[in-house]
Design brief:
Number of helices: 22
Radius of gyration: 29 Å
CATH class of the largest domain: Alpha Beta
Strand order of the largest sheet: 22-19-18-15-14-13-24
CATH superfamily of the largest domain: 2-enoyl-CoA Hydratase, Chain A, domain 1
Strand content: 15-25%
CATH architecture of the largest domain: Alpha-Beta Complex
Number of strands: 24
Length: 730
Amino acid sequence: MKRNLAYALFIMLIAVASCSFTNKSFENDDKDKLLLDLITYVLEKGHYEPKNIDDDFSVSVFEDFINVLDPTKRYFLEGDIKEFEQYKYQLDDQIKNTDISFFNLVYDRLMKRMADAKNIYKEVLATPFDYNQNETINIKYEDVPFATSRDELKERWRKQLKYATLGTYDSKLSRIKQDTKSSKSVINDQVVEEIENPDLDSSEDTSKVLTPKEAEKFARESTQKTLDEFFDFVDDMQRKDWFVQYINTIVDEFDPHTFYFAPDDKEKFDMSMSGKFEGIGARLQKKPEGAKIVEIISGGPVWRDQRLEVGDEIVKVGQDGAEPIDIVGMRIDDAIKLIKGPEGTVVDLTVRKVDGSLQTISLTRDVVELEESYAKSAGINKGNQTFGIINLPKFYVDFDDYSERNAATDVAKEVERLKQEGAEGLILDLRDNGGGSLKTVVEMAGLFIKDGPIVQVRSNGKRQDVYDDKDERIQWDGPLVILVNELSASASEILAAAMQDYKRGIIIGSKQTFGKGTVQNVIPLDNIVRSNDHGDLGAIKLTTQKFYRINGGSTQLEGVKSDVVVPDKYSYIDLGERDQHNPLKWDEIEPAKYIPWDGYIDYEETIANSTKRMASNLQIKLIEENARWLKEEQDETEISLNYNVYKSENEKDKEKSDYFKSLSDYDSHLTFKSLKYEQELFTKDSVLREKRDRWHQNLAKDVYVEEAVNVLQDLKMNNIKNSKLASVKG
């Protein structure tokens, strides 16, 4: 695909401008100021729709930054905010002059308030909660003012922590009632029952009665442990981490998808997009005792070696025989840097095993593929008919080497495999697919049409470019259904829109998809500075273009409207682009020239039949009812802290929740199976087999997949009927 001319010119522009930043980097021996200077320059010159950095912009940055740092209003006092407000209308000038005095003031105050918060929550949790008291908490924090004093702030913490403990307290008392072998006794004038006390050592008597007093104490201790771990994580954050949040508050004012990546974050983004990384193949969690292994990634070095297991804690890391470094207490990101490394290198891990023994285990690092990131397929049997489904979690690509594994080539492989196993229709599941590479979606769309335009892309003030499929080969010419929901975004919307405009397939799903109609490019900031004394400056993901359907409409805000609309649990929840912060507006351009699919498909009749089926489907009606209830629950912001009231409301919610549990009992009576190549892998990989079995079980309960199969049957029958009719007329 050709590089967009406007973007290429922009890259040339910032390359030419690098000399000016060379001098500034010496004038301002401060990385924060240099970053602020670079990013505002890139935003001004390269953003699709740059904003005026004025007083209104200043107010937005001010309010948003405070909200990012203290969304529940339990750190800053009203006096702090009033002191900060001296900068409310000055941040535009500070940004232009690379002045970071506002950030410095807020950061220093936040560190002070957080240090005090550690004392406050421990003071609060040292005193038992009175769950008989009639009081409430408003969890719509944007409507709550900042506290005026430490006492008022402590009271806010008390309510928030009491609310946090209620669920744990209730669960412990509920366990009493669930013990069928329990015997009742009266303690402190309350009826309790015998249960296992989770605080007891296994060697102690587990039949000890857990009183409400003990349950309350356990709830406070559990909450304190959670807060201790949270503040341990916060203590690991450095000043530069907080400054990144300030930078991104400024960047976010331009649109929701423009984002600054610190160097480590850029690496994580690349890993997410490619679905692979170099390392040992384990997910880690920071613990006081070291880095705890919480998941082993199938196929990676740890998985192949088999000496490490979930629950083991890494305490030291050495490099190929060198003196190991103690990582206990180290920032988890820094520990991971030591553990990860280039393919083929050796890392020595000193590990405290689950049984308490210490071992040193040497592993050779390798490329680890995150299997859950990649396309997967399954055969579907209904009667004597066979169909296929491909699930695509994202449009992944390796930015450094497009010839490596990517979404387009993987989907093409799965299509071929399904064809070989006799699939008569294809479902492409793009639900929850947030998008990815524009290049891969254009290639993927080409699998289903002969040739022609797929998407139009326009830069600011420029005429649009049309991205075409120029390969006349059609890899799949059979019936096609695409599943979407409110979280299908960006590249998912391009593909769904193109197939809809060509009338190539039927779109089944939510009323509309997410509505992200913008294109981002990732620009390393080091490319702009010729001389830099501050190390890696990271990168900015910048909105440089908007894409449009081939019919001229934009998917921005409006998304793609499904041909067959079916509700899901997100139907009444605000989570689309239109609900994001500072989205770009909707517009339209001239349509491209294209010829709709001529596959003898009765498009309108198929949609009408499906819509009729969905209207009378009891499972769909239950999903709709569940979606409305979830919205009602979300809108409830005044919560009682009285246990009896809480319990009563909780029981009502549980009754309703139990009522909706029948959703997961649904059985479509469809049979799903892995393809032959995958079945051969199961002999070596039991984890993969388990994942696929679980996926197939969920698919069998999926009413959307069931209806997609029904639509494929309709399309197939219409195709046969219309093909015969065309043959007779010929």
